[in-house]
Amino acid sequence: MKAFKLLLLLPIIALCVGCGGGEKVGTNATRLGTGGTGGMYYAYGSELAKLIQAEDKGHALDVKTTAGSAANLRLLREKFLDVAIVQSDTLSNAINGRGVFAAAGPGVGYAAVAGLYTEACQIIVTKNSGIMEVGDLVGKRVSVGERESGVLQNSEQILMAHGLTFEMLEPSYLSFSDSAAALAKGQIDAFFITAGAPTAAIADLATKKEIRLLSIAPDVQNNMMKLYKGYTRCTIPANTYAGQTEDISTIGVKAVLVASTDLKDEEVAYLIEFVFKNADKLPHNSSDKLTNEYAVQDIPSSFHAGAAKFYEAQGVKVNVYSGKSSDGVKASQD
């Protein structure tokens, strides 16, 4: 859609970029782009910043709230961020200059650090809405994700896989928290979220209002995984949210930590080593265990030199960023 493809041309002032609201940090702190305050990126980044501050006064993270993955990658390219968390499918599009990144061209100036955990594509409706499947969203008021977010891309692709477009809905472009609030007030009929489950905004909503999550049929999942890089099967177990009595079958993407190639190798090496050391303390609500293999598997970009040095010390080789866009990653265990 033309409007969607022009999103990267929006002025920076339109973005929700600001301090994360935690402890004060110095001007030399590493700027970390996350997402909205109701999402997992923000929770993950905020906890990571707290852990670093408590352990090492020589390093600090300045957590920034943003519109999400697409905004983070643009802000990395424009040097307003040093590191960020992004969806693997959005990263793939950025590296190849596809979709919303077509106008900017293939992504340069940033490289992967690690795949962190799997995020579930979640579609939430009220229990008494009568909406039982994605096809029932025709004509409904649906929040499809913030502009410049990975959720917006996911919702568009999920809808297209069911033969639907935004024009067949009444779309709005809300954050996680605003989407949940709007559903609770009856202002929308459904919303999309891509995040580790349980997601705070949904969990809080489920304690106030009866909700239902929609599954995506296996054949649709298969088609999407064939059409788009970065998707994988994902199950949200029963009782993840209050009142959810059945497993929800959906698709997911990987959350990837990405760094500006201007960030010094030693800073990136410190950050990835700290993330691995404190993996059990960081929130992500995924069953995935952070290992060297998981961190480098199915990452659609080359790696920052600082991260590559860390993995090489563990016996894992990855493609190192060379100044050009890269769509392939080869990793091997020596």
Determine the structural class based on helices, strands and strand pairing. alpha/beta
What's the shape?
globular
The biggest sheet, with number of strands, parallel, antiparallel or mixed sense and barrel status, is: 11 strands, mixed
Q: Report, as a whole number of angstroms, the end-to-end distance.
A: 45 Å
CATH architecture heading of the largest domain: 3-Layer(aba) Sandwich
Return the string of H and E elements.
HEEHEHEHEEHEHEHEHEEHHHEE
Oligomer: single chain
Give the mean pLDDT: 88
Protein described:
α5 links the parallel β6 and β7. Strands 1, 2, 3, 4, 5, 6, 7, 8, 9, 10 and 11 form an 11-stranded mixed sheet that branches. Strands 12-13 form a two-stranded antiparallel sheet. The model is unreliable at 1-24 and 325-334 (pLDDT under 50). Helix content is 31%, strand content 21%. The protein starts with a helix and ends with a strand. The chain has helices spanning 2-5, 40-55, 69-77, 88-96, 150-161, 176-184, 200-206, 218-227, 265-277, 292-296, 305-313, and strands at residues 18-19, 30-33, 61-65, 83-87, 110-126, 141-143, 170-172, 190-195, 211-213, 232-236, 248-260, 316-317, 332-333. α9 (265-277) packs across α11. The protein has 334 residues and is α/β, with parallel strands linked by helices.
